[in-house]
Design a protein that fits this description.
The chain has 454 residues and is mainly α. The protein has 19 helices and 2 strands. It has one domain. The radius of gyration is 21 Å and the shape is globular. Keywords: Membrane, Transmembrane, Transmembrane helix. This is DUF418 domain-containing protein.
Length: 454
C-alpha cells in the first residue's frame, strides 16, 4: 500500500420532503423525513441542514476521486505511484495540500449522514407500527424492523454492484449496505447499548489502523516503496492483459478489468467496516441529540472544537505524505475533522437559540446549490463519476492519457468542469421535472424498485 487519495463514495442519504418526496417513502438506503429514533418531530431547519450537509459530502467526494481519474494508470496506478504526472517540488506539495482537504473527511461525513438516514428510517417504522397498534415485545419489534430494512439494504447492495462494475471500482455502496444493516439492528437496541458498540468498533478500528501504519513504517519494502517512492512508475505498467485498461480498454472491457481485480478493489470496505459501524452510530446519536436543533448549540461547539483540534495533525500527516502517514490521516484524524465539519454545517444552518419558529438558516455560501445536490445525492454521485470517466478515461476523451504530465492542472480543471455539469443538470432537473421523478432519476428508479419489493 502506498500513498493514495482513496475514494469516497456516498449512498442514498436522508432526504427532505421537498420536491415531491414522500415523508415515509424514502430512497432505499435509509432516507426519511421525520424525527430521529427518539420520535421528535423533524423541523424544516433540520431537514434543510441535512440536505446541505449531504450535498457538501457528495460533492466533496469528487475532490478525492478526481485524483484517481486523472492518474495515467487510474486507481490501481495511484496505489503504486500516487505522484505520477506531478513535478517534484511545488506541484507535489500542491497535490498533498489539496488532497489533504478532502482525504477521508467526506468518507467519514457520509458515514455519519448514512447513520442519520438509518435512524430516520427507524423512527418512521416506529410510527407506522404504533399506528397499526403493533406493540409486541422489544425483540419481536426489532426483528420486524430488520425485515422492513432488509429490502433497502439488498437494493443498495445491487446498486453498489452495478456502480462498481460499470462506473467506479472504488464503490462503497456494497459496504454501506452490509454496515447499514448491522447498525440498523444496533439502533433498535437501547442508547446505552448503541454507545457501547460505537466505542468497541472505534477502538477496534483505531487499533487496526495503528497496527497497519506501524507495519508500513517498519517494513516499507512490503508496499513496494524505495526511498519514499515506488520503485517503478505505475503509469508505464501494462496492468491488465498487456494493456493499461484506463487508457486502452473500452467501457465494457474496463468493467471486466474491475471484475478481475475485485478482491483488491473491495479491500477498503472491509478495512473500514468497524469505522463505519462507529461513525454510523455517531451520526445517529448526534442527530437524536439535536445537533441540528436550536437547542444543540453546546454539542455543536464541542464538535467544532474536536474537529479544529485534529486539523494540525491531519495537515501534518498529509504533508508528510508517506503511506503510513496518509493511512493514519485518512482513517483516524480525518474522522475527527469530519465530526467538526458536521458540527460546523449544523451551526451554520440550525435556527438561532430562542427562535420562536425553527426556520432553516443559510449561513453557508451556495447553500441552495448544496441542498439541491443533497436532494439528488445518489444521482449526483454516480453522475459525477460517470462524467469524470468520460473526460479522463480511454473510452471517453482520454485527457489523462493525452496530457499525462499536466495532472495538477487537469485535476483542478476537471473538478470544476464536472462540478459545473452536475450542478447545471440537477438544477435543470429539479426545475422542469414534476411528479415522483422530480426526486432524481436514480432516486426515482430505486424508490420504484423498493415499492415492488414490499
Amino acid at each position: 500500500m502506498t500513498h493514495s487519495p482513496h475514494p469516497d463514495i456516498p449512498s442514498s442519504l436522508p432526504s427532505s420532503p421537498a420536491g415531491g418526496h414522500r415523508p415515509e417513502s424514502p430512497s432505499p438506503a435509509g432516507t426519511g423525513a421525520a424525527g430521529g429514533a427518539t420520535g421528535r418531530r423533524t423541523t424544516a431547519a433540520r431537514i434543510g441542514g441535512l440536505d446541505i450537509a449531504r450535498g457538501i459530502a457528495v460533492l466533496g467526494t469528487l475532490g478525492t476521486n478526481i485524483w484517481l481519474f486523472s492518474h495515467p494508470a487510474g486507481m490501481l496506478g495511484s496505489l503504486l505511484d500516487p505522484f505520477a504526472g506531478l513535478r517534484p517540488g511545488a506541484e507535489t506539495l500542491a497535490y498533498q495540500l489539496l488532497s489533504t482537504l478532502t482525504n477521508g473527511k467526506f468518507l467519514a461525513l457520509l458515514m455519519m449522514m448514512f447513520g442519520i438516514g438509518v435512524t430516520l428510517q427507524y423512527a418512521a417504522w416506529q410510527r407506522r407500527a404504533a399506528r397499526a397498534e403493533d406493540r409486541p415485545g422489544e425483540g419481536v419489534r426489532r426483528r420486524g424492523w430488520l425485515r422492513t430494512y432488509a429490502p433497502r439494504a439488498a437494493l443498495l447492495f445491487v446498486d453498489g454492484l452495478v456502480n462498481f462494475l460499470l462506473v467506479a471500482e472504488f464503490d462503497i455502496l456494497m459496504g454501506y449496505a452490509f454496515t447499514g444493516f448491522v447498525v440498523a439492528a444496533i439502533i433498535a437496541t437501547s442508547p446505552r447499548t448503541a454507545r457501547i458498540w460505537a466505542w468497541i468498533a472505534g477502538a477496534v478500528h483505531t487499533a487496526l489502523i495503528l497496527l497497519l501504519s506501524a507495519s508500513l513504517l517498519l517494513f516499507p519494502e512490503a508496499a513496494g516503496i524505495a526511498d519514499g517512492r515506488p520503485a517503478d512508475s505505475a503509469a508505464a505498467w501494462p496492468l491488465w492483459n498487456g494493456i493499461n485498461p484506463y487508457r486502452e480498454a473500452g467501457f465494457f472491457e474496463l468493467a471486466l478489468f474491475r471484475l478481475d481485480y475485485a478482491v483488491m478493489f473491495r479491500a477498503e470496505p472491509l478495512l473500514t467496516f468497524a469505522m463505519g459501524v462507529c461513525l454510523f452510530i455517531v451520526g445517529a446519536r448526534l442527530y437524536d441529540a439535536g445537533i441540528f436543533d436550536s437547542a444543540g448549540a453546546r454539542r455543536r461547539r464541542r464538535g467544532m472544537l474536536l474537529g479544529a483540534a485534529a486539523v494540525p495533525a491531519d495537515v501534518a500527516l498529509g504533508v508528510i505524505g508517506s503511506p503510513a502517514a496518509v493511512l493514519a490521516q485518512r482513517y483516524l484524524t480525518a474522522t475527527l475533522v469530519a465530526v467538526g465539519l458536521l458540527a460546523l454545517i449544523a451551526h451554520l444552518t440550525a435556527p438561532r437559540d430562542g427562535a420562536a419558529v425553527e426556520r432553516p438558516r443559510t449561513g453557508i455560501p451556495g447553500a441552495g446549490l448544496f441542498a439541491a445536490v443533497g436532494r439528488m445525492s445518489l444521482t449526483c454521485y454516480v453522475g459525477q463519476n460517470l462524467v469524470a470517466g468520460a473526460l479522463f478515461y480511454g473510452w471517453g476523451l482520454d485527457i489523462a492519457g493525452r496530457f499525462p504530465d499536466h495532472r495538477l492542472l487537469l485535476s483542478v480543471g476537471g473538478f470544476a468542469v464536472v462540478l459545473a455539469i452536475m450542478v447545471a443538470f440537477i438544477l435543470t432537473w429539479q426545475r422542469w421535472v414534476t411528479g415522483p421523478a422530480r426526486r432524481g432519476p436514480l432516486e426515482w428508479l430505486s424508490h420504484a424498485a423498493l415499492e415492488r419489493l414490499r
